[in-house]
Amino acid sequence: MPETTRRSVLARTGALGTSIAFAGALSELFASTAAAHGRGGYGPLVPDPAGLLDLPRGFRYRVLSREGEPLRSGEGPVPGNHDGMAAFSGRRGRTYLVRNHENDPTDPLPVPAVPGLTYDPAATGGCTVLELDRDGDVLSERVAIAGTAVNCAGGPSPWGTWLTCEEDESRAGTNGYTKDHGFVFEVDGADPHRSGAVPLTAMGRFDHEAVAVDPRTGIVYETEDARNPFGLFYRFLPERPLGGRGSLHAGGELEAMRVPGVPDLSAVTEPGTSFGRVEWVPVPDSQAVQTSVRSQDYGPQGITRAQKLEGAWWGGRSVYFVSSYARTRQGAAADHFGQVWKYEPDRRRVTLVVIFGPDTGIDTPGESPDNICLAPGGNLMLCEDGKGAQHVYGVSRRGEIYEMARNRQNIGTPELPEWGEFAGVVFSPDGETMYVNCYRPGTTFAVTGPWRD
Question: What is the pTM of this model?
C-alpha cells in the first residue's frame, strides 16, 4: 500500500488559486494539484508590441537567435526545431548556451554537417552552441554536434557538459540513416571537438527524452517518451561515476524502475501519494538488438510505465520527472493533463508531487508540462506543450501558479496551432537571465528582469 503524505494538499475543484506548495527549495516540494491561476508571480503579462513574447511588467527580452538566419560560424543557416537547452559558465564571464534541434529527415533546416562533429551524415538533428559575453551579447554561434536524430531534451552533467538525447531509435537503413540511433551524446559547449560525436551506448538505445544526474553519486536518470508500449524511467550506474568529460564512455549498467503494484503511473491521481521500496530491474539488452528496451522481459512482476515521460531535473537530493499527459483512449490507465514525480534515491521512494487538471479548455494553466527547471529563489518553471496559446508557467514557493511568458508568434496562425511550444527553459549561471526557446519558428530568447524580487 502507498505511503500517503497530504501536506498542504488542496481541493481539486479548479476554484482555488494555489496549486503547488514549496518549502525552501525544489527538493522540499509539497504535494498539490494544479487547477487554476494564483496571485503570485510578477503580475499580469503585458502584450508585446512586436508580437513575439509577452512578459510581466519590468521584464524584457532579447532575441539571441532565430531559425534560418546565418550561423555566425559561417557553417550554414541556424537549424530549426529549437528544443532542450543548458547554460554553462566559461572564462572571462562568458556563458555557453548549448541548444538541441529536434530535426527528423523531413525538416528543411538541418544541423549542418561539420567534420569531426558529425555522427551520421544522413541524420539532420544535433546541437548548436551560442557563446555569450558577460553582457549577454552573442559572440559566436556554431555547430556543437551534427548527424544525430530528433534531439529532444537532455540534461547538464556535473562537470559542465551537455548530455543530448535522441528521441528516435531507428536502425541503420531506416529513413536513409547509415548508423543506429537512439543514444545519448556528450557535448562540450566550450570546445565541441573535445567531445566529438560518439554515442554513449551503455546508457541504452531507446527513445530518449531527458536526463538528470545525481551530483553526489554520478547516477544518471533517464526518461523515455515512447508508445506501443509506453516508456520507462531508467537509471544508469556508471563504471566511472563523476569522472569528468568522457567518463561515461567507460560503460555501466542500465536499470528500469519498478514500483510494486503500479504498472502505470497515470493510475495515481492523488497528489502526495508515495510508494516506498522502489525496485530497479536490470535491462536485459540495453542495445535493443532484437526487442525495444521497453518491450523486454522484466519478470513476472512486470515493469512500471508512463505515457509521455519528458522533462527531468535534479533538485536537492531528489530527481523530478514529468509525464506530460495520459489518455485512456491511447491506452493509459487514467487521464491526466500532466504529472510531476519526485524520486528520492536515499529512501527509494517515488511521490506524485503535482497533477495538472482538470481540463477547462485549451488554455488550461499548465496543461501538458514538458521541460522544467528551478528558478532563482526556489520557483519552478514549466514549459507548456499543449494546445492553444503556449506559456512558460512559474510555480511560486507559496504554491501559486502564474504566467511567466506567452508566445505571441503563433497566435492567429492556424498553420502552426500547436508548434509554438516553449522548450529548454534554463537560467544563466548567475541567475540573472532566463533563456528559453520557442520550438517553431525556432527562436531563442534571453529574458531579464527583477527575478529575485
Answer: 0.91
